[in-house]
Automatic annotation (TrEMBL):
Protein name (Swiss-Prot/TrEMBL): Nitrilase
Any one Gene Ontology molecular-function term assigned to this protein's record: nitrilase activity
Organism: Acaryochloris marina (strain MBIC 11017)
Region of interest called Disordered, as start-end residue ranges on this chain: 313-332
InterPro entries, per the entry: C-N_Hydrolase, C-N_Hydrolase_sf, Nitrilase, Nitrilase/CN_hydratase_CS, Nitrilases_CHs
SUPFAM superfamilies for this protein: Carbon-nitrogen hydrolase
Leader sequence residues: none
Sequence ranges assigned to domain CN hydrolase in this UniProt record: 7-273
Pfam families: CN_hydrolase
UniProt family annotation: Belongs to the carbon-nitrogen hydrolase superfamily. Nitrilase family.
Length: 332
């Protein structure tokens, strides 16, 4: 680790263009260009921001959400595809690491997917949320352990988790054990109210302290008009409010800038990597403060598939004993 390194990071709080993959992607590209003017080297967007988080599934019963679910299928992102190509070009053009949440479609399934683009435009990691939360299970499939990986990037060793994956301590520890230097958190925002924002702050600051890494956390935002688009029920519109905490936290658990909790905006801060060593000198959860003789974590990091090719069994040669000798019969 370069102890003298400093990285300028941005967490973006932003509203999508509802029902439009193309429109939301344009907002992502505009935000990347704006961040480049601030000399940002790492930018993090909210959970499943492209085309939009499925807020409908939180306020509609399954029996009536079919139309909205189908529309999400139609606007979802494929990997590879046009959205990936556009973000790759922007990352390469501005030499910026980009962490983007998308609704990914593969075949007949949708996934909550986090994409990490390196500063040369390479898509370095595609990971899927390992367990969708509550209502989300009606929308997305499950990810696998292949996504529990820390990626070496131009700005350092990056890991990412989405929303309540942060309440899975073993998932967090899997990233910590890989010497995560910057953790990228993504949440939907505009849900549940202030209590969600309060819980998020506690969770993000705790991970920074426990892992001894920086946390860059981004949440989405819905305008009053967008809440009306999602539901005409005024009581349910109140449910789609609050819950925003876009922030950057130091390895000592200290916010490095004012968080964004209302409206659109960017939290921008410089990450001084010497703070990682300063924190871990006191408490290194995966080093001198661990007890691997007592406690260990096992992780299956293989990607799963519904079908795998069986190994080919060679046919016996013509002059082999198997083909030339008569087949023995049981003796009466």
């Amino acid at each position: 680790m370069d102890h003298e390194k400093a990285v300028r990071a941005a967490a973006v709080q932003i509203s999508p263009v509802l029902f439009s993959r193309e429109g939301t992607t344009e907002k992502v590209l505009d935000a990347i260009a704006s961040a480049a003017q601030e000399e940002v080297q790492l930018i993090v967007f909210p959970e499943t921001f492209v085309p939009y988080y499925p807020y409908f599934s939180f306020v509609q019963p399954p029996v009536v959400m079919g139309k909205a679910h189908m529309q999400l299928y139609e606007e979802a992102v494929t990997v590879p595809g046009a959205v990936v190509d556009a973000i790759s070009r922007a990352a390469r053009s501005y030499e910026m690491v980009v962490v983007l949440g998308v609704n990914e479609r593969e075949g007949g399934s949708l996934y909550n997917t986090q994409l990490i683009f390196d500063a040369d435009g390479t898509l370095g990691l595609k990971r899927r949320k390992i367990t969708p939360t509550y209502h989300e299970r009606m929308v997305w499939g499950q990810g696998d352990g292949a996504g529990l990986a820390v990626l070496e990037t131009a700005v350092g060793r990056l890991g990412a988790l989405a929303c309540w994956e942060h309440y899975n301590p073993l998932a967090r520890y899997a990233l910590m054990a890989q010497q995560e230097e910057i953790h990228c958190g993504q949440f939907p925002g505009s849900m549940v109210g202030q209590i969600f924002a309060d819980q998020m702050e506690v969770t993000m600051r705790h991970h920074a302290l426990e892992s001894g890494c920086f946390v860059v956390n981004a949440t989405g935002w819905l305008t009053p008009e967008q809440k009306q688009q999602i539901t005409a029920d005024e009581k349910l519109q109140k449910v789609l409010s609050g819950g925003c905490y876009t922030a950057i936290i130091s390895p000592e658990g200290v916010p490095l800038c004012d968080p964004v909790t209302e409206g659109e905006g960017m939290a921008i801060a410089d990450l001084d990597f010497s703070l990682i060593t300063k924190r871990k000198r006191m408490m290194d959860s995966v080093g001198h403060y661990s007890r691997p003789d007592l406690l260990q974590l096992q992780v299956n990091q293989q990607a799963w598939a519904v079908m795998q090719s069986a190994p080919t069994v060679p046919l016996p040669e013509q002059d082999s004993p198997l083909s030339s000798e008569p087949i023995p019969h049981p003796v009466d």
